[in-house]
TrEMBL record:
Ranges where the HTH gntR-type domain occurs: 8-76
Pfam families referenced in this protein's UniProt entry, alphabetically: FCD, GntR
Native source organism of the sequence: Maledivibacter halophilus
Name of the protein: GntR family transcriptional regulator, transcriptional repressor for pyruvate dehydrogenase complex
UniProt keyword annotation of Transcription regulation present: yes
Length: 233
């Protein structure tokens, strides 16, 4: 999974590779990293370099070192990091709309890249999220949890760590807008229908269609929110 480091400060190269794997979703929270001995042998470097890399990752909050047990990927608490940002967005209708406009730029490209680079496993994950949503929404679920999972799964399928981070950063700030639209009668079902159209395009590997379907979905969301905000004024 990791490649032999090339830089003079070998531990920095290891740190960057592991962070990239975490951001791309190839290493997930709770995953155990190879031991110092295993990684040193695999990469043909000293155990000191591996040890320094693990310490650096621990200081950055990326991993947890459990003595006698190993080194494990740590879950990043985005809620704690972004609470002020989320509160600002959720309390300002104009900022909610601004964020939706930003999504129109970001997520359309994300859908395109997912169609180009998504693996069979990643596309299967997107499908399974939609299938689960279809089961739970008729039982009374508002669908917001599945909405977040759907957009995150598409971001992971881009294999672009920056897009993955961006969607992680903004997803909780969008909860208010999602709650506003999902309160409209029948909207959760219509949202799933939109999501299936996006999924179908991604599964077909049709980048242009995937981007178009995502843009259509986001435009519908924005129109609904504008109507709701207008009624609240």
């Amino acid at each position: 999974m990791l490649q032999q480091p090339q830089r003079k400060r070998l531990y920095e190269d290891i740190v960057n590779q592991i962070i990239s794997l975490i951001n791309e979703g190839k290493l997930k929270p709770g995953d155990r990293l190879p031991s110092e001995r295993e990684l040193a042998s695999e990469l043909k470097i000293s155990r000191n370099s591996v040890r320094e890399a693990f310490r650096t990752l621990e200081l950055r909050g990326n991993v947890e070192i459990r003595p006698g047990d190993g080194v494990f990927v740590k879950k990043i608490d985005f809620d704690k990091i972004l609470t002020p940002f989320s509160e600002i967005i959720s309390g300002d209708a104009k900022l909610v709309l601004d964020l939706l406009e930003a999504r129109d730029v970001i997520e359309v490209e994300i859908a395109r890249l997912a169609a180009l680079y998504g693996t069979k496993e990643e596309i299967k994950e997107i499908k399974e999220i939609l299938e689960e949503a279809e089961k739970e929404i008729p039982k009374g679920s508002d669908g917001i949890e599945y909405d977040n999972e759907f957009h995150m799964a598409i971001a992971r399928a881009t294999h672009n760590s920056v897009y993955i981070i961006i969607i992680n950063l903004i997803k909780d700030s969008l909860i208010k807008s999602k709650k506003m639209t999902e309160s409209v009668e029948g909207q959760p079902i219509r949202t799933i229908a939109d999501h299936w159209e996006i999924y179908d395009a991604i599964a077909e590997g049709n980048a242009e269609k995937a981007g178009k379907m995502m843009r259509n979905h986001l435009n519908k969301t924005k129109k609904n929110i504008i109507k709701i905000i207008g009624r609240q004024d």
